[in-house]
Here is the input.
Amino acid sequence: MKATLKNYRQSPRKVRLVTDLIKGKSLKEAVQLLKFTIKRASDPITKLVLSASANAEKQGESTDKLFIKNITVNGGVTLMRSMPRARGRATPIRKRSSHVTITLEKK
Here is the structure.
């Protein structure tokens, strides 16, 4: 059972702080942890976990015995912008995005 979130507009480094909290936890425990986590990425990751559990339910699995086997955060598309600097120069601004993949498994 898998679910993916693509092109989430936050850097992978910040999203990994949230995903590392729930790796290896049961679904109920993961949702409870994410509910009280004060990070911007916690809401989209919560939706992703619930989506993965819905996918598992659709395949006929019981959601009570499922846990998060693996959750990976990879870099997505980077939007390149520039900031004006002194003497007519410009420096790049990289607006990063993330691809998050979650895998569930039975205990």
